[in-house]
Each structure stands twice: as structure tokens, then as C-alpha cells.
UniProtKB/TrEMBL annotation:
UniProt-listed InterPro entries: Ank_Repeat/CDKN_Inhibitor, Ankyrin_rpt, Ankyrin_rpt-contain_sf
Name the record gives this protein: Uncharacterized protein
Residue stretches of biased makeup (Basic and acidic residues): 114-125
Repeat found in the keyword field: yes
Length: 125
């Protein structure tokens, strides 16, 4: 998933998610596919993740969100898009609107909680 999102192949992202890929799988530093997309400046990949209902606001083990990663790497369009997604999410919460996609219902565990549940994944191989 990381390679696909960092290249921005939207159709591949859609297919992977459609056939069960986890859009919030974490890599060794706690990055999600959204972090990789933000680092690469792939706005199309971020849009595909959001459209599929994937959470794009999770923090890595250093506390950085994909939005912060986009800002660090100077991808202003990606950072602005992610800021808008966060704002929309806050408005939905205030209105009492629940996400439609089952992907959004995946628990928003912190990096540490995820590590304890699956420590093998985060070890160097």
C-alpha cells in the first residue's frame, strides 16, 4: 500500500481498499498510507483515501499527522486539503453525523496501543 499511495495510483488505491487492504496500516515509524501520500505530495492519493473513508488524521510515533508531514515537505495543496478534511470532520462531530464508511469505524488507537497489539509488525526485519 505504501508504494501505491506514494506514487498516487488512484485506481490501484481504490482496488486495494475495495479488496480488503487496511488503509490505516502502520509502518515502522507509525506512518499510515496517508503519511506516505503527504510526504510524496500526492493529493490524488489523499483524496482517494478520504473518499474511501480512511482516517487521514492519525499521528505517528512522534505525534506528526499527515497534515504536518505535508507542511514539513512543503506540499501546500496537500496540507490545505488535509486541513479542510479535519475541519469537515469537526463539523460532522458537532452535528452528530457518523461516518458512513465502515473503514472510519476502525478504532483510532494510538501508535503505542497498536504496537502492543501487534509488536511483530513494528520490529525491524
Amino acid at each position: 500500500m505504501e508504494r501505491v499511495v506514494s506514487t498516487g495510483y488512484v485506481e490501484c488505491i481504490r482496488l486495494l481498499l475495495e479488496f480488503g487492504a487496511n488503509g490505516t496500516t502502520r509502518m515502522s515509524m507509525g506512518w499510515t498510507p496517508a503519511h506516505s501520500s503527504a510526504e510524496a505530495g500526492k493529493l490524488s492519493a489523499l483524496r482517494a483515501l478520504v473518499t474511501a473513508g480512511v482516517a487521514v488524521d492519525r499521528k505517528d510515533k512522534y505525534g506528526d499527522t499527515p497534515r504536518r508531514v505535508a507542511e514539513i515537505y512543503g506540499h501546500k495543496e496537500c496540507a490545505a486539503f488535509l486541513a479542510q478534511v479535519e475541519q469537515d470532520k469537526q463539523l460532522d462531530i458537532k452535528r452528530g453525523v457518523r461516518p458512513v464508511s465502515p473503514i472510519s469505524d476502525v478504532s483510532d488507537d494510538s501508535y503505542e496501543d497498536s504496537y502492543e497489539k501487534d509488536p511483530w509488525f513494528y520490529r525491524k526485519h
